[in-house]
Amino acid sequence: MEIKNNQKQLNIDDIQEKGSNAGIRERNIVDEMKMSYINYSMSVIIARALPDVRDGLKPVQRRILYAMFKSGYLPSKSYKKSARTVGDVMGKYHPHGDLAIYDAMVRMAQNFNTRYLLIDGQGNFGSIDGDSPAAMRYTEARLHRHALELVEDLDKSTVDFVSNYDGSYKEPYVLPAKLPNILLNGADGIAVGMATKIPSHNIGEIIDAVNFIIKNGNKWKSREIDNSYIKNIKTLADLEKLSKDRFPEFETDLEVEEIMTYIPGPDFPTGGIIYDRQEILTAYATGKGRILMRGVAEIKEGKNSKYQIIITEIPYQVNKARLVAKIAELVKTKKIEGISDLRDESNKEGLRIVIDIKRDGKPKTILNKLYKFTELQKAFNANMIALVDGEPKLLNLKKILELFIKHRQEIVTRRTEFNLAKSKEREHILEGLIIALDNLDEIISIIRKSKDGEAAKENLIKKFKLTEIQAQAILDMQLRRLAALERQKIEDEYKDIKKQIIDLINILETPERILQIISQELNEIRNKFADKRKTKVVKGKVDEFSEEDLIAKEDVIVTVSHDGYIKRLKTGIYTEQHRGGVGKKMMTTKENDYVEHVFKCNTHDEILFFTNKGRVFREKVYNIKESGRTAKGQAVINLIDLSHDELVTSILTRDPKGQVIDEDIIQEEQLDTENKGKNYKYLFMVTDRGTVKKTSLTEFENIRNSGIIAIKLSAGDKLKWVRPTEGNNEIMLVTKNARSIRFNEKDVRPTRRDTMGVRGIKFKNPEDEVIVAEIIRREEDLLMIVSEKGFGKATVLEQFPTQNRGGQGVYAARINDKTGNLASARVLDHPGLHLIIMSQHGQAVKIPTEDLPRRNRQTSGVRLMKLKSTDKVAAIAII
Fold it and tell me: Which is the catalytic residue, given 138, 169, 275, 494?
């Protein structure tokens, strides 16, 4: 009986013949199990589960690419059956199951799993829904263009080759890899006692980071590199004798945070959004970290004014079909309420999951629950373990890039040595041919007199002191090479090869040149393959949504329509015109919608949205999408959690220091001190039924994402205006029937947020309503009014007497069928202002306020804007 034991522990000389126990050696079973398990573990770690840091490939992946390269399954050639490749790999290099090989091959061809494809597949290679690929006999494949950058220069002695499992073939120990594939495509593997999970990245960002390191962060280790070996390279055979100590060792003194200037975070093939720069930095600096991913979802208004949640991107490694099934399950179990329909509308154009919201559903709340209860939000737990010289190590971002640069230094060095050896071999032959051409008659005579080829070779060697290689080259030379032009070609080639040898030696003697070559080759690849980032990186935590440091500070104009569509525009988009003009199209609105708010602010300001139901929300200006002049904009419900019939009616802005700014107070540079320096203490609120209320600003310091109550309303009443006050201002209310009342805000005592107000004006006509609430600060200021049909004027405020609140007030203007009811009014408190008038159909005109006619209270004014019979003035703004 023969027992196979661990060969390292068993010495054949120690075996003694002992009857039936011949060949058996006693061994403690605990020690045997330990050793066997360690051997098994190392085999799994090194030969199966973990990638090599240099080419980013596991052995099976490397063998697949090498087998396809050797077989000529190149991007320029036709596709070949996948079974053919699997058979080659299994028979020659990878003695494991064919399904394991095919699974690895399929993954490298799936664009939802691999950021930069290594295999170009044809046929069914599976889907993001988890569908299995077709059997290998049905699919076809060839190398992708990206893979050529991993295998290039394999034939130039750039890497070591080792014997395959039975010694019948040679395979590369690692690929030359011009790219840091371990970062580009990431890696995922479970070994024994350890696992790796490396995210994918953007090729352009990685190459920029490598170039940055090469240019700014390199330093050479103190050991001297002996270059004397270079002169001994004369043939390819000499390369096998070279010492491995000839490669310089590269390291950088840069910090990971500096490298993150170029690599802000992972870039997954399925897109999505990742959060928290600090967590990403932790992962990059330590090799381990939790990166939070979210799918991309947008709330849009669908048919019949119902809202939809459209999901267009999902987190990496999330199964779309399971995600849809999970949402359906949550609706069925009523963990999420308000969803009426769920559809997967994905096609070849891209991913699209549509969720229809019921009329009374809250889209923002439903979306937040989807993030909480489904894989629409998922964590990527990075654990960047890879093989370094055959040993598993936890690596940070800087070390991975250093090791890649070091790998490329070795590859470029070995390739240069190979080219030098080939050039010197060719130089040696050319020297012999030149000798022959210089002594042509004598050479011919010797050859003619020789008995045979061997004799001719010996005679040439003896006569001209040639080497055997040179003599053989002369004998092999064709007669046409004796022509004058052919002779010149040989001499020119000899000169060129001498220059090439000098250049190659210079490269080997100058480590900086090797780095330049690495950088140059990377830039060439960047020009070929660089693409846009798919995954958006948000600096703040998922609950903060803070991108402030990435947003430029600039003044913008924000418009909000009556039905809740918001957009921001650059301030220069409004150009000055004369009064009475038609205006410029500034927004496309749907039927019966119109622009209601126009105000100027800064991208870093915070907007306070007050709604008709008496609630207040907050959002940063930079989170509003910048749109074109005539664009509709996005629904406000994308930004704040409004209920179905809730509308934004008043807007204030708050700067980064917490100072509240009235939307109608201009923010020109020369007036910053005057307007932003006001000591606002209260928010003064007015409803359309004439109720007024005053509440301390401190009550609004902490506004939740879900909003807070600003005022309690009676049935049928709506909050329409909110203005910041200093506690001693005068208030003016103007109604659509042109009645106005002016009273001191001290007549209204301060109350808490969740209280009702008191009467501000009594309507003479029950159908009348308040259209404007304004703050009066100076008697010499003007009240400007604009009617629905585009008529307007300016009246000195001293014509409006101060009264007690709750009265019917006085006329602000005379209105008739020609003018229509009043549309809006504003107090003009500075010279050099501009009035923007916007119509319900989206037309806009910008007029200097100096052009407005001064008229008494009981006059109608003049035409300021020409309107079509079906159009009306919707809103005005002062900037």
Answer: 138
